[in-house]
């Protein structure tokens, strides 16, 4: 079957944006967040346009992108909520400006995304070392690998941290 005529991002938007907004509003429970994610979905469509066999294929493609964006949205909210809860006990003058808080939340999101890109054992070794303060010997026992392998895992994680730091270098205000 030939691709549907007019499956450009513009025609997809005109044909399916209302449906997608309703789909996202039901998932998110918020019309404003749904509107933001509709726009984000179509930005992704413009970056990776496709051809479709039917209208249901178009909706399936849009729903797949939108579901991924919902997951990102929920993860971002979880991180933001956790950070705000950790700051709740601090005096107001130590909490920073709204711009600084937004930068911190964005940086936390980037760090979380970087950690998710790491292989599971590398991520686990890194978290055990950095958050739990475990020495290499105990991490090796926990993961069932040699200390040498733990060093390799951590070197890989630190390389990713350095790359992330280089990416964010221009974004952070001290």
Automatic annotation (TrEMBL):
<dbReference type="InterPro" id="IPR013249">
    <property type="entry name" value="RNA_pol_sigma70_r4_t2"/>
</dbReference>
<feature type="domain" description="RNA polymerase sigma-70 region 2">
    <location>
        <begin position="12"/>
        <end position="78"/>
    </location>
</feature>
<dbReference type="InterPro" id="IPR039425">
    <property type="entry name" value="RNA_pol_sigma-70-like"/>
</dbReference>
<feature type="domain" description="RNA polymerase sigma factor 70 region 4 type 2">
    <location>
        <begin position="109"/>
        <end position="161"/>
    </location>
</feature>
<dbReference type="InterPro" id="IPR014284">
    <property type="entry name" value="RNA_pol_sigma-70_dom"/>
</dbReference>
<dbReference type="InterPro" id="IPR013325">
    <property type="entry name" value="RNA_pol_sigma_r2"/>
</dbReference>
<dbReference type="InterPro" id="IPR036388">
    <property type="entry name" value="WH-like_DNA-bd_sf"/>
</dbReference>
<keyword id="KW-0805">Transcription regulation</keyword>
<dbReference type="GO" id="GO:0006352">
    <property type="term" value="P:DNA-templated transcription initiation"/>
</dbReference>
<dbReference type="GO" id="GO:0003677">
    <property type="term" value="F:DNA binding"/>
</dbReference>
<dbReference type="GO" id="GO:0016987">
    <property type="term" value="F:sigma factor activity"/>
</dbReference>
<comment type="similarity">
    <text>Belongs to the sigma-70 factor family. ECF subfamily.</text>
</comment>
<dbReference type="InterPro" id="IPR013324">
    <property type="entry name" value="RNA_pol_sigma_r3/r4-like"/>
</dbReference>
<keyword id="KW-0731">Sigma factor</keyword>
<dbReference type="Pfam" id="PF08281">
    <property type="entry name" value="Sigma70_r4_2"/>
</dbReference>
<protein>
    <submittedName>
        <fullName>RNA polymerase sigma-70 factor, ECF subfamily</fullName>
    </submittedName>
</protein>
<dbReference type="InterPro" id="IPR007627">
    <property type="entry name" value="RNA_pol_sigma70_r2"/>
</dbReference>
<keyword id="KW-0804">Transcription</keyword>
<dbReference type="Pfam" id="PF04542">
    <property type="entry name" value="Sigma70_r2"/>
</dbReference>
